[in-house]
Amino acid sequence: MERILKLHEAIAVVLLSKENRTATLEEISNEITNRRLYYKKDVGFANAKQIRLRTHPNTHAGKNYAHLFEFREPNLVRLRNS
User: Do 14 and 37 meet the contact criterion of CB atoms below 8 Å apart?
Assistant: First the structure.
């Protein structure tokens, strides 16, 4: 399976389709899987833990995408207005 989107892009695609551009980690993970927007190299789909790592500002990867995502404890992610 060829990867078309990067994980942060797949998260943004999901959030664009949600009311208030907000969803839980689980909702994002499920929709990425159902829509086959992104998959890991080991042939699995992105789980909630990976999405948290990519969107939480206190993680290494999350710091790179803080301009895109706002993380609200315990598990909500919102797409920032551009």
Answer: yes
Compute the distance between CA of residue 19 and CA of residue 58 in angstroms, rounded to an integer.
25
Is residue 56, in this structure, part of any structural domain at all?
yes
Tell me, what's the pLDDT at 1? 58
Written in H, E and C, the secondary structure of 36-54 is CCCECCCCCECCHHHHHHH
Distance CA 28, CA 46 (A): 9
pLDDT tens digit string along 70-80? 999 999 999 99
Q: What is the DSSP letter of 18?
A: S
In 3D, which of 53, 34, 3, 29 has the Cα closest to residue 11?
Answer: 29
**Distance between CA atoms of residues 69 and 34, nearest Å:** 22
Domain count, the chain: 1
For residue 50, the domain's CATH number is 1.10.10
